[in-house]
Every structure is written in structure tokens, then in C-alpha cells.
Amino acid sequence: MTVTLTEKLDELCTQVAQMLNKDSVDADTPIAELGVDSLNIVEVILICEQIYPGVMNPENLVFDEHTTLREMDQQLLENSVEF
User: Fold this and answer.
1) DSSP category for residue 4
2) How many domains does the chain have?
3) Residue 56 lies in a domain
4) At 60, which CATH number?
5) Rounded CA gap, 34 and 39, in Å?
6) CA neighbor of 47 nearest in space, from 67, 76, 82, 83
7) Has residue 83 been placed in a domain?
8) Helix 69-78 × helix 41-51 angle, to 10°
């Protein structure tokens, strides 16, 4: 089964919402405003590793409290060998 780019972002939003015990999250809201803090950023990283398994050079990724899930998705896709 082929996963589309939109499906990856949708899956990221779904899993982050589940982690935060929310019904949904907006892909364009900074992660700090979603409720992601330093304690659960590791969970977000693990979620990303599952959804985007072909990421090369993870040191090129730049995420902070102002980063949105859409921006994370774009960086992960740009650094992926799968796309």
C-alpha cells in the first residue's frame, strides 16, 4: 500500500492528538501551543520515527516550540530517502 504525503501528515496529527488526549490537533498550530512540552517531545520524536522511517541526516532537522506539525512533516519529507 502506498501512503500519500497528506496521509503522513494526517497520521502525525492523529498520533500527536492521541498522545495529548485530544480529539484532534491543528497541523498549523505551534507544538508548544498544542501542549507538547519537554517531557513528551521524546514521544513526538518516536511517533515521527514510525511515520517517517527513511529520514537521513536527522541532525538537519530543526524543531522548537514554534514549529508546527506541518513544518515538521515538510522537514521530515525533505530529509527522507523515501520521497
Assistant:
1) P
2) 1
3) yes
4) 1.10.1200
5) 14
6) 76
7) no
8) 50
Amino acid found at 35? G
Count the Cβ atoms, other than its own, within 10 Å of residue 26: 13
pLDDT digits (tens, 9 = 90+) for 44-77: 989 999 999 888 877 788 888 899 999 999 999 9
Which domain range does residue 55 map to?
5-78
User: Do the beta carbons of residue 13 and residue 25 sit within 8 Å?
Assistant: yes
Amino acid at the residue 61:
L
Question: In the prediction, which pLDDT does 6 show?
Answer: 84
* 78: its cell numbers: 525533505
C-alpha grid cell, residue 65: 516550540
Residue 70 lies in a domain: yes
Report pLDDT digits (tens) over 48-57: 999 998 888 7
Half-sphere exposure in the Cβ direction for 28 (13 Å, CA): 0
